[in-house]
Design brief:
Number of domains: 2
Radius of gyration: 20 Å
CATH architecture of the largest domain: 2-Layer Sandwich
Oligomer: single chain
Structural class: alpha+beta
Number of helices: 13
Order of helices and strands: EHEEHHHHEEEHHHHHHHH
Strand content: 15-25%
Helix content: 40-55%
CATH topology of the largest domain: Beta-Lactamase
Amino acid sequence: MTKIQLHSIEDVHNSFQLMEVFPDTHAWAKDREGRFVHANSLFVHRFGFDHINELRGKTDFDIAPAHMAEEYVKDDRQVLCGQIVTDRLELINKHDEAASWFLTSKWPIYDFDNQIIGTFGTSRHLNTTEAAITPFRDLNGSVEYIRRHFSGPITVEEVAKATHLSVSTLERRFKKHLSKTPRHYITELRLDYARKLLLESSKSLASIAQEAGFSDHSHLTRSYQKRFGLTPSNDRKRSVE
């Protein structure tokens, strides 16, 4: 794609009308504050809205789980610095179904003073073409294996062996497509599961730590605070206030 240049971010609606003709591609644009200013019908309907006006002004945190929104925003920050994101493999949720894998690309939107005024993105579902799936088959297998076993004493070596990859290849593919290591991904899944148990049950922190795959509640607390910005106890208190 060539450089995207508009008089203002409000011109996005007219400039990207052609995105409606691509049936398997989600397309959207945001301003510098991460607020949606335009999206095609496929994207709008994916998140349970009937019209673009219901989406305008919302951010990723309004339509996606926090841990997913945080990943989307990280990419946006890079794009707002002038970088381009190309075919990033990521999970995208749906309002009434489980999340699924997409290839996402993002570009900066410039005004005619060469200032970045927003971001434009597209996502294609991995299952739309066999050619799109092929490069990610092994990574998808690794991700699914981790999702099934993250609460146990899983190791990166075990994941690599189960998916017929060397540890170095597994690490490289995770870094390239998910921008994180397998170990980091395992920890994120454990933390997401721990948070679900914490906010949706009355189980003790020690019980949650064990169930989510942490060595003890102290390990869980340190990791939890680093990721979510507050301790498990404070998060639980805040949820019932």
